C-alpha cells in the first residue's frame, strides 16, 4: 500500500527569500553625485556665485556620464531596460490595485517615467544655467576680475545706441533664462519628493531592498 504523501503545514514552510537588488558602481556614483550637487546648490552655495556655477558644471559632467552609461553600461543601467511607456505605467498601477507583484530587472514602469521626468527637468536646469553663466572658462564665474571686465565693456559702449539695444536684448534673454531656471528647480524638488515617496512605497509593497541597493558597498 503506498504511503500517504505528507505535506508540511503552511505555517512551517520556509519564507521566500527577499529579492536583492544592486546597481553597478557607475550608477551609484552618478546617482549620489547628482544628489550631492543638488543639495549643495540648494542649501550651501549662494545663487549666482562662482561656487554655485561650478557645482552646476560638475553636475552637467556627471549627468552626461550617466546618459552615456545608459548607452554602453550593463543591461540594468541601459535605457532599453526601462523604456518610458505610459501604457506599462498604467498597467503597473492596476497591478498595485489588485496586489499583483512583478519582478523588474531595472526600474518598474512608474519608476521609469519618474526617472525620465527628473532627467528632462535636470537637463533644462543645466541648459538654462549654462545659458546664463556661459561655458566654463579659466576665470571663476562671478569673480571680481570677470565682473570688472564686463563693467568696463558696458561703460565703453554705453554711448553706442546699437550696442545698447543688444545689451537690453541680452538682459531680457537672461531674465527669461532665470525664470526657466527657477521654475525648473522648483519642479525638480517636487519630482524628487514624489520619487522618494514612490521608492519607499514600492520597497514596502514588493519587499525588495530598493533603498539599500543604491548604497555604496552593496554587492
UniProtKB/TrEMBL annotation:
GO terms for biological process: respiratory electron transport chain. Its main location: membrane. One of its GO terms (molecular function) is heme binding. The chain crosses the membrane at residues 51-69, 110-133. It is found in: Cell membrane. Residues 23-217 form the Cytochrome b561 bacterial/Ni-hydrogenase domain. Residues 157-166 have a biased composition (Acidic residues). One of its GO terms (cellular component) is plasma membrane. It holds the Pfam family Ni_hydr_CYTB. Keywords: Cell membrane, Membrane, Transmembrane, Transmembrane helix. It comes from the Bacteria. Residues 156-176 are annotated as: Disordered. It is a multi-pass membrane protein. PANTHER family: BLL0597 PROTEIN (PTHR30485:SF2), NI/FE-HYDROGENASE 1 B-TYPE CYTOCHROME SUBUNIT (PTHR30485). This is Cytochrome b.
Amino acid at each position: 500500500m503506498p504511503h500517504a504523501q505528507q505535506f508540511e503545514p503552511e505555517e512551517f514552510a520556509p519564507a521566500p527569500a527577499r529579492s536583492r537588488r544592486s546597481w553597478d558602481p557607475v550608477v551609484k556614483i552618478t546617482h549620489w553625485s547628482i544628489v550631492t550637487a543638488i543639495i549643495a546648490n540648494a542649501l550651501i552655495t549662494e545663487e549666482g556665485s562662482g561656487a554655485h556655477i561650478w557645482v552646476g558644471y560638475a553636475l552637467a559632467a556627471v549627468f552626461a556620464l550617466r546618459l552615456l552609461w545608459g548607452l554602453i553600461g550593463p543591461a540594468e543601467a541601459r535605457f532599453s531596460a526601462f523604456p518610458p511607456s505610459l501604457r506599462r505605467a498604467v498597467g503597473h498601477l492596476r497591478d498595485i490595485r489588485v496586489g499583483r507583484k512583478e519582478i523588474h530587472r531595472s526600474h518598474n514602469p512608474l519608476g521609469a517615467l519618474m526617472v525620465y521626468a527628473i532627467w528632462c527637468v535636470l537637463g533644462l536646469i543645466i541648459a538654462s544655467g549654462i545659458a546664463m553663466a556661459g561655458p566654463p572658462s579659466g576665470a571663476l564665474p562671478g569673480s571680481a576680475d570677470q565682473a570688472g571686465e564686463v563693467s568696463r565693456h558696458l561703460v565703453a559702449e554705453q554711448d553706442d545706441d546699437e550696442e545698447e539695444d543688444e545689451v537690453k536684448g541680452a538682459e531680457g534673454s537672461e531674465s527669461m533664462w532665470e525664470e526657466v531656471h527657477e521654475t525648473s528647480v522648483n519642479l525638480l524638488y517636487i519630482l524628487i519628493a514624489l520619487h522618494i515617496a514612490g521608492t519607499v512605497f514600492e520597497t514596502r509593497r514588493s519587499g525588495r531592498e530598493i533603498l539599500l541597493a543604491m548604497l555604496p558597498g552593496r554587492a
